Amino acid sequence: MKRFLPWTGCAVAALLLVGGCQTPPPPPADFSADTFTRRPRSEADDLLRGISELSLEQAQKIAIANNPTYIAAYHAIAAAKMRYYQALGAYAPEINSSFSLSNNNNWVHHQINGDASRRSDTFSTNTAVSANWLIFDGLSREFALKIAETEYHQQKALSEDECRLLIRGVAYAYNSVLLAAENMRIAREDMDFQMKNLRVTELKQQAGAVPLSDVLNFRVLANVAEGNQITAEYQYEVALYALAVLMGYPEGTLPPSVKFPRIQDIYLYDLPSVDIYLDNALANRPDLRAYREQLQIARYQLYQTYSSFSPTVSLFAEYDYGTNRSRAYHESGKGGQNASNFSYGVGANWTLFNGFIRYNKVREAQANLSATQYQVVNTWLTVVQEVRNAYINYVQNVKQARLYEKTLEITTKQRNLVDDEYRAGNTELTRLNEAQRDLVDAQTTLASAYINVQNAKAQLDAAAAINVAEYDLSPGGLSTEYIEATGIEARTAIRKEVPEIPVKPAKVHDKFPSSEPGDQVR
User: Fold this and answer.
1) Where on the phi/psi map is residue 404: left (φ > 0), alpha (ψ -120 to 50), or beta?
2) What is the pTM of this model?
């Protein structure tokens, strides 16, 4: 049995090799629990520790590090890399080993001539090693390798595209939080204004200067403002939930300690020519690059079909060693033999005719290549359309925001004047109600306009593939050892050559002046 120990050692070594491969780290323990309140806590719960005011850039970086959809897309790169290594293995010889052990007991019973029963016992083993090395197959392996390599680059492009869309989605969710927070502030200011006038009017009513209806008017409007605040608070919470999920935060919402900047910190910019964005998008959009990689794969698949018209040549060698031990009990004797055999050679196979199957496979590959070419054309047109739509959407929203800024200045001044006139008894209550309603509408409309501008900018940056230029695309869930073992780059370059896009800031002023009576508009 000592001769079989080397084979056992080889098997153990192979198991150790497989077991020692680097594996990606599992998701945080939080997400494996079947209960929320008693789930195990992990580092994912500390994502926002030390952050008092969450910026958009911080939210996007946290999402890149923890969003499960993006991490899953990133792991697909490693799978594609391993498929490439599998294709490389086709150039190596294939070596196989086998071993068999058998025991055969044979009885011959007494039949016609009255001979005594006979029994024989045979024990045999066979050990064999064979090797086969494909020398030439019409370049089929070469094209299979190029296909696997191109699929790897395609998967990287798809992962980058997932990152591009994730960054845009985080921007949308973040801006929704800002809008809801601003609507809460507007509603609180409106309620404060109504409550202040309510207290003044109650004193006037007690003195007999105004009727009870004026008091009831401000009470109703204060309730309306409070209702608007409740609605805005609900929208704020929902927006937080959406942002937390994109960031991969296990709580499903953000801590109350995390604050957000005011919308008034948003500035308006004039954009350069749309041609700059179009050039950048067509050169760097990862989804378009993925389709171009698919087109290259289709070409290699067509070339691979030609290899079936070529012969295949391979080398082979085989060595086997067998033992045979037998014993015939009726002869009280033993016998046996050991035998070995070694053979080698070269073999060739060439299919001359198979019913035009090869020919039709070539035609199928040609048709697939043509279809993929038009898919690339369609994606190219879609990219151009998305960039143009996003560009004109940004320009239109900037124009509206600047117009609404002027409207807010006018309505603020108007409301303050009407409020002073009402307190002096020179105007009617209905006119004050109209002026306050116009001011609230102008504030709400301008807040929405600012958010529309920010969303349009996020849409344009994503359409032109600019939004991922400064981000590390490696998810935080991947260990350094795993990245090094799989050969995945820790930082993937999105842009080939992104031009500097100049911006011209608009005149900066306070977009949301105070609505308190008597304050000056700045």
Assistant:
1) alpha
2) 0.82
CATH of residue 260: 1.20.1600.10
Distance of alpha carbon 228 from alpha carbon 184, whole angstroms: 8
Residues 248 and 130 in one domain: no
Closest to 65 in 3D by CA, of 487, 483, 471? 471
Same domain, 291 and 395: yes
∠ CA 190-192-195, nearest 5°, is: 110
Compute the distance between CA of residue 371 and CA of residue 368 in angstroms, rounded to an integer: 5
CB atoms within 10 A of CB 295: 16
- For residue 66, give the nearest of 246, 242, 258, 243 by alpha carbon: 246
200 in Cβ contact with 213 (< 8 Å) = no
Task: Name 321's bridge partners.
Answer: 127, 340
Q: Which residues of the chain have pLDDT under 50?
A: 1-20, 488-522
Convert the pLDDT of each residue in 53-85 to its tens digit: 999 999 998 899 888 889 888 889 999 999 999
Residue 459: which of 387, 402, 401 has the closest Cα?
Answer: 387
Place of tokens 């959809």: 69
Which pLDDT does position 251 carry in this prediction? Answer: 81
Q: What are phi and psi of 333, to 5 degrees?
A: -135, 165
Q: What is the DSSP letter of 510?
A: -
Say what angle helices 140-206 and 212-246 make with each other, to 10 degrees.
160
- CB within 8 Å of 196: residues ≥ 6 apart: none
